[in-house]
Amino acid sequence: MAVTTRKSAVDSQATTPRLSSDGLTVPASYVRTLLATVTEQGHDAEALLVAESLTKEELAGATVPTALFGRIYQRAVQVLQDESLGLVSDGRIVRGTFRMMCLVLVTRPELGAIIQRAGEFLDVARGVVVKPDLHVESAVARVGFALTRGVEGRSLEAVLAEQDAVRLRTTLYLWHKLLGWFADRPLPLDEVTFAFPAPANGAAWARLFDCPIRFGAEASALVMPAPMLAWANVRNERALEIFLKSVPFELIRSAHTEPDMSERVLALFGDGVSRPLPSAAVAARQLGVSVSTLRRRLTMEGTSFRTLKDSSRQAAAIRFLAATDLSLADIAELLGYDEPSAFFRAFKRWTDMTPARYRADTRSGETHAGDKRGIIR
Asked: How buried is residue 24: exposed, middle or buried, by Cβ count under 10 Å (0-12/13-18/19+)?
């Protein structure tokens, strides 16, 4: 292989971890569809498989790790210079559009304002034909589709009819997960409606959105309680830059299970770095229980508030080591440690290895199913 002074997009290091210890997977068909798009546009899809050491036998299987799909998606975007993959669009969406939109949105104070500003941004973005359209009636909010300002001579119905069902679903899913990320907590939906008949795998869509799905509706939309529009945006630009390095992994890794008290506390903590972790008294108030009830429920689940705080910091540390190129000193600062050495000691206590060793093993493809105390989320 000839030596060059500049790495290609395929050879460059994507920032989503190659393998994930969380056991999350996506259908392998996601990857096959992505590679077919790369091939159709005249690029070497085989090179993406080689870059991730993914065999054709593995590709032909039922599922692949979510993190691996995320890395292949990142590489495909780099090769094609197109962020429209899998989304409703009218041609190529220039790479960097999503980042610039998020930088605009992160300044808005609450979810309702984020939805409105997203529409304003997408009105002037190249290749984008639809934007989120918010309607509030009584206590119900609906986030559906509207045409962007640059679309002329076509109706919304005609534009959406040109898109396949999966693109419509994926676009609504992206908006749903992005709003949840800004709020730093799950965004429960009343239902999701689609203005087309149920596809063959339509029953599985309810698991994807974790709510009832209604096909054959008047319009395709996310339906949620209107008070959620006032939920605060708790993110800042620093948290956003970290998030952007692991898209789409962070948007597709959610688990759909009914949370117990420990899971509710961990969801309240969020990513462990966007804001100071609350005290037990503050957490109990936010969860609508007394401090004694909180502690009793956690004890029944075999854990404690202090252990969960430790777990939150540990999960954040592992995510940063695996999914970003942040220095160890930066990670220590984000986790609230006064000195990097304190972070190193804590991480060694959690995992029996240093942060540098853990990062090296993860990048080389080794996985760690857990740590010696078993509190990795």
From this structure: middle
DSSP codes, 22-83: T--EEEHHHHHHHHHHHHHTT--HHHHHHHTT--HHHHTSSEEEHHHHHHHHHHHHHHHTB-
Ranking 80-84, 201-205, 261-265, 322-326 by mean pLDDT, the lowest is 80-84
Compute CA 233 distance to the chain's CA centroid, rounded to the nearest angstrom.
Answer: 16
What is the DSSP code (8-state) at residue 108? S
Tell whether omega for the bond before 340 is within 30 degrees of 0, i.e. cis. Answer: no
Which residues neighbour 193 within 8 Å (Cβ) at sequence distance 6 or greater? Answer: 213, 214, 215, 217, 218, 219, 220, 221, 223
**φ, ψ of residue 60 in degrees (nearest 5):** -80, -5
Q: What is the pTM of this model?
A: 0.58
CATH architecture of 257-363: Orthogonal Bundle (1.10)
Provide CATH 1.10.10.60 ranges for the chain: 257-363
Write out the H or E segment, with its range, that includes residue 315.
Answer: helix 305-323
Among the residue ranges 17-26, 78-87, 190-199, 302-311, the one predicted with the least confidence is 17-26
| 109-121 burial: b if 16+ Cβ within 10 Å, else e | ebbbebbbbbbeb
For the segment 160-182, what is each residue's pLDDT rounded down to a tens digit? 888 888 888 888 988 998 998 88
CB 314 within 8 A of CB 336: no
